[in-house]
Amino acid sequence: MALVTTKEMFAKAINDDYAIGAFNVNNMEIIQGIVDAAQAENAPLILQVSAGARKYAKPAYLTKLVEAAIIDTGVDVALHLDHGEDFDICKKCVDDGFTSVMIDGSKHPFEENIALTKEVVEYAHAHGVVVEAELGKLAGVEDNIKVDARSATFTDPDEAAEFVERTGVDSLAIAIGTSHGAYKFKGDPYLDFERLKKIHALIPDTPLVLHGASSVLREFVDRCNEYGGQIPGAQGVPEDMIREAAKYGICKVNIDTDLRLAMTAEIRRVLVENPAEFDPRKYLGPGRDAITRMVQHKIKNVLNCSGRR
Ligand code: G3H
Ligand code: 13P
Ligand code: ZN
Known about the structure:
The protein has 13 helices and 8 strands. It is of the alpha/beta class and 309 residues long.
């Protein structure tokens, strides 16, 4: 039981048709809910922390809570920085004991993204930490933007191969049609699988990462709406598309929105049904259990990584 890097877990997953869930964490209940699910399923696990999560919880709390979860459950965890925007935050996380960092230079021109990524790779590798980078821009869901226009921002397969070769990065996040949040598609869900297959064929040994991979499960959206939430039109990546992506080099599947929805839907239900309740344990506890159920479902039925530890 330990903090581990993603190296071994990706090496096993890359030539198999399963992927590893990378779940965003912000507080104790979210960490416990996820780690309990991985323990029950004997599954490999990545917990990831965004800059916003670091600021909200304060850095020391999240790393210590993750250490506590490992002691409590015996589950191996890769602790990853999500969307690090510059060298400084990546360095801080390496120094804090993270085992993996993402340098997200996707908003920069190609050569600048390469230079920034190389700088992080050099520092992280010298400290035994692995690095994820990103090439291409995740899709937006603005009105009137057609698939053709959106695909101009998708990851170019030849550039991906050059990027990996020149940076020495350990894994690569790619843009093939997903986006962050609960409103991913205006019309029918669309992912560019042909592009994914080309990228995987050109860099077959590089683990690929799918950001924006929440499915925005109907059950939670409906419950949020039923108990006073207002999130009409929410739409995620269909679960069969995630299963399909895992066959073509996608090793890491990023999930945050589904955690937020599962927890919030349950807390809403408890508070609406018990308006006199004011003990935080009475609603945070059920919220935590809802996360465990949802993550177990992902591990078993979507990521197909039960028993792969
Ligand atoms: O990719 C973004 C993640 O969902 C983290 O979101 O920056 O609000 O913590 P956040
Ligand atoms: P979702 O918003 O689809 O959960 O994506 C999360 C993510 O990509 C975190 O990096
Ligand atoms: Zn992301």
